[in-house]
Design brief:
The protein is of the alpha+beta class. It is built from 6 helices and 8 strands, in the order E-E-H-H-H-E-E-E-H-E-H-E-E-H.
Length: 196
């Protein structure tokens, strides 16, 4: 936790503070999830409007198997990005990335900052590959992950069901951490990367 907090600048000049999620943040995280409109909750795996679901998933975090980073603006949570991984076994070097951003902070650079933060953590966790699972209708998210270096590895037809009961194709996207490192070195050395 010594790496946090970090204060960074979004593309429009707004300052955001990145922090590792702790139990002290759970009530605010629940409020963040409950504020999300249905269109942003359509693709989530669990009912994050239920406080008990949030507490089960994020309470008492084991940072070796779940690494959740939150982005705050003026003290309020505006986004969360998490790496989930198995702590043992043949999948221990694979990290699954999940991200959720408040509507008013989408397309402003917050998701990019959060995913890049997870990337640096993946290096420390000996994760060689990051994976994201999206429904085929999440066009903006798929494009955003592509811009971050992820590529489509598979499309599984009618593999998942959204919260309205509609069957959707599942898009598996992945990124080799070593491949990304080369692109991130250029980014960190550029004047666009501003840390305060």
């Amino acid at each position: 936790m010594a790496d946090y907090p970090k204060t960074l600048e979004l593309t429009d000049g707004i300052m955001v503070t990145l922090e590792l999620l702790t139990d002290n943040d759970l009530d605010m995280l629940i409020k963040f999830f409950q504020r999300l409109p249905e269109k942003d909750r359509l693709y989530l795996r669990s009912d994050i409007t239920d406080p008990e679901n949030v507490r089960r998933r994020f309470g008492n975090p084991d940072y070796d198997s779940m690494y959740p980073v939150i982005g705050r603006v003026n003290g309020e949570i505006m986004g969360i990005a998490t790496i989930f991984r198995a702590s043992f076994g043949w999948m221990r070097n694979l990290g699954e990335v999940r991200i959720c951003i408040a509507p008013e902070y989408q397309k402003r650079g917050l998701s990019t900052l959060l995913v890049k933060e997870l990337f640096f953590q993946a290096l420390k966790m000996n994760i060689y590959k990051l994976q994201a699972e999206l429904m085929d209708t999440q066009k903006a998210a798929i494009t955003a992950f592509k811009h971050l270096g992820f590529r489509e590895e598979a499309i599984l037809p009618k593999h998942v069901t959204d919260i309205k009961g509609v069957r959707r194709d599942l898009v598996l996207m992945a990124l080799d951490v070593e491949d990304l490192w080369a692109t991130q070195e250029d980014y960190v050395l550029s004047p666009d990367f501003r840390m305060h």
